[in-house]
Batch of 3 targets.
Target 1
Amino acid sequence: MILGTSRALGVWACPEPTDLRKGYDGLYGLVKSVLRRDPLSGDLFLFVNRRRDACKVLVWDGTGLCIFQKRLERGRFASLRRADGGTVRLTATELALFIEGCELVGRRALSPDAIMPIALALDRGA
């Protein structure tokens, strides 16, 4: 499952376990207060419960908030906790791998940094 495919799309994971009984308003509040992001930006926001056997993704699709949820029947999602307690940023591809159960997500960078364009030649005023 891929919710978005653009590298420009941000995916932000809440660093602390989340009570997944929260709905739209509760997750919206966590995005604002914990992640300090704009819930209406179009980015995806990932929340995982304490047992790491369920997760929710909150996203604004331009017309309303959507929640996607997955519960594992066996196993656990990878731990996304950082030593400094900071927010974890993923790519859309890393989110898809996380949801599929990849254990490497959050432990090592799976995608290169964004490519920044550079000038190939100096404009010398012809």
Target 2
Amino acid sequence: MSDHLDDVVRRAVARHLGVEPSVIDRFHHLERDLHLQPLDIVLIVLAIEDAEHVEMPIAHLESIETVTGLTTLLRRVYASVRHAYRPSFVPIYRRYRRAHRVARRRQEV
């Protein structure tokens, strides 16, 4: 099962290594299988940030070992961005309707 974020990470890793994205498996170990150094991983993350217009936490990169781990980190970033933009207020028209509904009930009583 391949989704958009998995493809983004695989394309970024493949572009950095200069190979086709189909060569990159999601279970490849970044250091052992792909021979990437920590600086290479940071450069890949910067490329993903530029492509997807998000900001990934650099502090969590030392715990990332596989391509799937990098995809999971990107999913967490997307989830936190989506959660941050969820409106925590009631829109004005709803407050207006609720206030008028309460006022009508008071008049009826």
Target 3
Amino acid sequence: MSGFRQKSEIITFKADESLLKALRSVPNRSEFIRNAVLNALESTCPLCGGSGILTPPQRRHWDQFTADHPLQECQDCHEMHLVCNMDNDEKQD
């Protein structure tokens, strides 16, 4: 089935005037929007799914996890990231 093509579906969304104005200058709006959505989905938080809010059970799991995995600033890029202290704690025992 080398000639098989996935069906496309049209999705619409509401946009305010400033977004419409900005999108009008993009040569291939469909491709731009597709890429933007795919990039956003790849960067979605695996815990909250992009909502920015943890449920109480998720928060309990997060608190347990961060006991041995604190957030630290990277010395090179200055972004925050999780660091595993499990090995360090085991070495000290």
